[in-house]
Amino acid sequence: MKIDRLYSELEDLLTGYGIEIRKEKGNFKSDSCTVEGKKYLVLNKLHPIDYQISLLAKALYELNLDEQFIKPVVRKELERIWKMSLYSKKKNEEFDLS
Fold it and tell me: How many domains, the chain?
């Protein structure tokens, strides 16, 4: 799957959960936050696209995706990203990704 398409698919999944994605330029670290009950994911446009995708995947990791339909190719990419990430050690035990 092309990287731009993966980014778009992950962005669509997050907005479906009511998370607003803000893309800004500046000297800041990308992350998620909640302001007055509204969830945001703030991405730095200056960061590489693969880093932005890892942040989208991290935000999705923190949601319950069991009931959510995700295209198989997108789910496979998500699981690959989760496996490689530091925050997903518990998640790796749920999948047979060895």
Answer: 1
